[in-house]
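This section describes the prediction task in plain terms. A model, or a person checking by hand, is given the sequence of a single protein chain and must write out its three-dimensional structure as a string of tokens. No templates, partner chains or ligands are provided. The sample shown here is typical of the held-out split.
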Amino acid sequence: METVLYNQKGEEVGKVNLPEKVFGLPINKDLLYQVATSQMANKRQVLAHAKTRSEVRGGGKKPWRQKGTGRARHGSIRSPIWKGGGVTFGPTKDKNFKKKINAKMARKAMFVALSSKKNDNQLAILDAFHLESIKTKEMAIMLKNLNKVFSGGRVLIVVPENNNKIRLSSRNLPNVGTIEARNLNALEILSNKNLLLLKDSIEVLNKLAK
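The expected answer:
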């Protein structure tokens, strides 16, 4: 499978072979849904937490004696029926939203998502990207040169290994993200409309398919 190879000026400089087992898989919506929802659940942070009566401060002393006052019996002012008391069935941080997903399923879902991007013309391969220094302006110019390839929307730049120049040059640009090829997953692919792969990233992905 061949596709066009671009340089950072947005010019076609040749062709590049894409492995069929990574970029030529048929769409599988059920697999993508199962893996993407699992990955979203695993990223979820549990923040909502209501204190129970044992966690609320104070209330150690019995508010009044058991008998003889004419009032109802109470053992603590931190009872759930008191204002300022604990919550009976409130949300807690102990809730676990994580879902187990097999590594093979997650890997195949990533390749299905990559194949979908290829079929929808939302994937571009860049031969190389050279930055003299960390410059957001240079990154913006490069992405502007590739406007004819992409139809607008968020762009995810996939690099073969950690590249601080690319990462730091793009972090202040809206709708632009970077990720190492070894960390790529189906959720990241589906969360970004367009993918820009550096040519050397293809080999990293190909090794993951073996």
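For orientation: Strands lie at 2-6, 12-17, 123-126, 155-159, 176-180, 194-198.
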